[in-house]
Amino acid sequence: MSDVITAQRRGLVMLALALGGFAIGVAEFATMSILPYFSREFGVTEAAAGRAISAYALGVCVGAPVIALLGARVSRRGLLVALMAFYAISNAASGLMPGWGGFTLSRFFAGLPHGTYFGVAGLMAASMAPKGKRAQAVSRVMLGLTVSTILGVPLANIFGAQVGWRWSFALVAVLATACATLVWLYAPKLAAATDASPMRELSTLKNRQVWLTLGIGAVGFGGMFCVYTYLASLVMEYAGAPESVVPVMLLIFGVGMTAGQFIFGWAADKSLMGSAAVCLVVSAVAMLAFWAVAGNVWLMAPVLLVIGITGGLSTILQTRLMDLAADAPTLSAALNHSAFNFANALGPWLGGMALAAGLGWPSIGLVGVGLSLAGLVVWGIAMIDDAPRRRGIVPG
Known about the structure:
Blueprint: H1 7-33, H2 35-42, H3 46-70, H4 76-96, H5 100-111, H6 114-128, H7 134-162, H8 166-186, H9 198-203, H10 208-220, H11 222-238, H12 245-270, H13 272-293, H14 297-309, H15 313-324, H16 330-356, H17 363-390
Pfam family, one: MFS_1
Protein name: MFS transporter
Main location: membrane
């Protein structure tokens, strides 16, 4: 196929990349929703079953830098196909594992391609985008992940309840295979840069701005994950709502996350760091509101929508990292998702500490406020550190 990128072909590639994000979103978030089913089958407590979630997150953190470095000389199309093929196989293995130990190990392996996929997919999307719309192109890739919280997770949950939790992983395997096939058929066949190498990728880590940008996500995103993790328990145990309300709250959250990709994808093309600051401030205010209205699900619903919208921070930081490491962007872009998985561990951990200290369910909102403000502090440090370059005193 010719490598002329027509509008129609660009649309097919973007669809394929978003489909990969959808598959990853289903695997990551749906595993939480089917946890009661596989914990029961394997004969472990739900608390112990949470280690399978942690194993996946650990796989993301390990896989993102390692695969990005090893794949530095591989074409983006070839790397994406390989990552999605591996994702399909590892998730199929999760559905077939007969024992708890093998299942947990398979979740670790399933997490390995996650960060690098989004990093490389974002780079490919940005490379095809019209001038001035790079962040919006990246947001389209992340859109697959957020839409999965609206459509994919409930579907996987139905699979788990009606036909068996193992079929949820079969669904992920089919989606990942479809993504790999579409990328192979339609993505541009661009060879890796002749001077690409692991050492060149590692050189980006000398840039303080890369680390500070990763820090904004690692800290500032923690509050959103804290609220998402404990939302179901808070709705039922504190707000006193029936179990049937939980999916509605999660749906509202997912709608917000999807809207956030559009809103902040557009805003980031106008001002990357400005939109990041707005996102963090909005997050802090929304978390404070969540603390105030946690006992009333009707008041909580619009607040959850806003908290979900702040998930657009992922697109902002992904684009920022690609700009900071334009000559060797794969590692820094992949590490963005390691940072978010660090936030995925940090937020619930701090929230758990607050609950263990007897501060009550609404306290997870205050934890979110603190993490959002901490992310804003890191943002401020990044702006101060970058001031000489913006004034032209230091070469960019």
